[in-house]
Amino acid sequence: MSVENRGKRLFSGFRDTAVFLGWAAGLFLAGFLLWSLTGTIRDRSLLRTVNRIFMQRDDPRRLDAPVQPPRGSGRLPGNWYSLAGANHTLFVFSVMSGGIMAPYAAFVNSAGKVDEIVPLSAHAEQFMPRFREGLMDIYIRRIESGAGGGA
Predict the structure, then answer these.
(1) In what order do the strands lie in the sheet with 89-97?
(2) How confident is the model at residue 86 (pLDDT cuts 50, 70, 90)?
(3) Pairing of the two strands 79-83 and 100-108
(4) Dist CA 73 CA 118 (whole Å)
(5) Which residues pair with 63 in a beta bridge?
């Protein structure tokens, strides 16, 4: 085999790999841009959904607007909202139970302490009694430390 043919085979494999890596990087970039540019739409959609749940339950509390997460809460996966006419914030988060995401809302007072945790779906309501007390305490401590009320 000549040196010229060996070089063509080497660069042919490199070219295929480069095309594949470029394609994968383009998909990643498109997904990242889509996720980052639709943040406000996702926040508003979740706000409307939680308010609809509260209306269906005849709960007078309503979410007002998305708020910036408190300092130090960067590791908490969830969304923060202000409550209309109250000095509380609401943290919406999910817990995996039986392979299904169970959404909950934690009402956090101005001191950063969790006052109440409310299930936001039928599955979350069914899971709430089985939600081990220790596991619930872990979530409460993480929320309070993220909100500035924990030790």
Answers:
(1) 63-66, 79-83, 89-97, 100-108, 114-119
(2) confident
(3) unpaired
(4) 20
(5) 83
* CA-closest candidate to residue 120, choices 27, 66, 68, 48: 48
**Given the structure tokens 């500035």, which residue do they identify?**
148
- Copy the structure tokens of residue 90: 């609401």
Query: What pTM was estimated for this model as a whole?
Result: 0.76
Q: What percent of the chain has pLDDT over 90?
A: 38
What mean pLDDT value characterizes the chain?
84
- The residue among 140 and 1 whose pLDDT is bigger is 140
Question: 105: closest CA among 124, 86, 133, 87?
Answer: 124
Sign of the Cα torsion 144, 71, 92, 134 reads negative
CA 72 to chain centre: 16
User: Do residues 106 and 91 touch, judged by C-beta distance below 8 A?
Assistant: yes
